[in-house]
What does this fold into?
Amino acid sequence: MATKTVHVYPSEGAWAVKKGGKRAKIFVTKREAIEGARALAVREEKKSRGAQVVVHGSSGRIQELRMYGMPKVQDPPKNGRLPSGRIAKAVGKVVLERLRSEPLPPRAHSRAK
It folds into this structure.
């Protein structure tokens, strides 16, 4: 079973939703972006594949992880040489750099007044 990961991250004053290898979709608010990512994940789940939504904060840290059609993964052990916060921050920074390395399409949504 191939699992798809959908990332939600800040981009140029808006929020981007990106599924592995595809171009990012731009949303005005974080809430809209999370709803769009959830819809993508549910479609993948219905195709008999697991999917996960990874929500990044403005600093790049992972704020939330939602799984669809996948078993819950056990939380990692707390004791280690490095504090888990530093690891999460470093991983989030690398993921954001990779996601932002591809050019974004022009904004499709405009803010309603």
Q: What stands out?
A: The two ends are 44 Å apart (CA to CA).
